[in-house]
């Protein structure tokens, strides 16, 4: 299953809505970054939900995909953050 | 050459210093994201410089690496941002 890193730069008024959607599909790993392994079908569903809440002229979401988690190496400098439910 | 996506969550007092370092090695593609292709040697140099300016107990930098750019697929929802020099 493909592995995804999602990054975003979204206006303050809409960022919580975007996070709530992303939290259903991915893990929140840094202030503007989510990660996770999901099927293509679920990714499409997630994208449709995101399109309903963002302003495409202002907001920016990048979906990075690798075919397998093993294709991606991750190094951490400083704190490795992970946000739990009580942040939303 | 490996391809990198760098994401960061750094305190306001230090974020400009981090961006100035990253801009020497990568392209600034989203508010908290840089991308680029560099040698292992240059990556180590970049990491050493970052370690001099961040507070490792508070700040967080993730370095995602794929072996080749072709291993990484990128989809954009909304705006594809790229920051030029006048932002620093």
TrEMBL record, chains A, B:
Matching Pfam families: CRISPR_Cas2 (PF09827)
Cofactor: Mg(2+)
Binding site for Mg(2+): 9
Role description: CRISPR (clustered regularly interspaced short palindromic repeat), is an adaptive immune system that provides protection against mobile genetic elements (viruses, transposable elements and conjugative plasmids). CRISPR clusters contain sequences complementary to antecedent mobile elements and target invading nucleic acids. CRISPR clusters are transcribed and processed into CRISPR RNA (crRNA). Functions as a ssRNA-specific endoribonuclease. Involved in the integration of spacer DNA into the CRISPR cassette.
Protein name: CRISPR-associated endoribonuclease Cas2
GO terms of molecular function: hydrolase activity; metal ion binding; RNA endonuclease activity
InterPro entries, A to Z: CRISPR_associated_Cas2 (IPR021127), Virulence_VapD/CRISPR_Cas2 (IPR019199)
The UniProt record lists the keyword Transmembrane helix: no
Gene3D superfamilies to which the protein is assigned, alphabetical: 3.30.70.240
Annotated family: Belongs to the CRISPR-associated endoribonuclease Cas2 protein family.
Source organism of the structure: Pseudothermotoga hypogea
PANTHER family in alphabetical order: CRISPR-ASSOCIATED ENDORIBONUCLEASE CAS2
Lineage: superkingdom: Bacteria
Gene: cas2
Quaternary data: Homodimer, forms a heterotetramer with a Cas1 homodimer.
Keywords assigned: Antiviral defense, Endonuclease, Hydrolase, Magnesium, Metal-binding, Nuclease
Gene Ontology BP terms: defense response to virus; maintenance of CRISPR repeat elements
Major enzyme class: hydrolase
EC number: 3.1.-.-
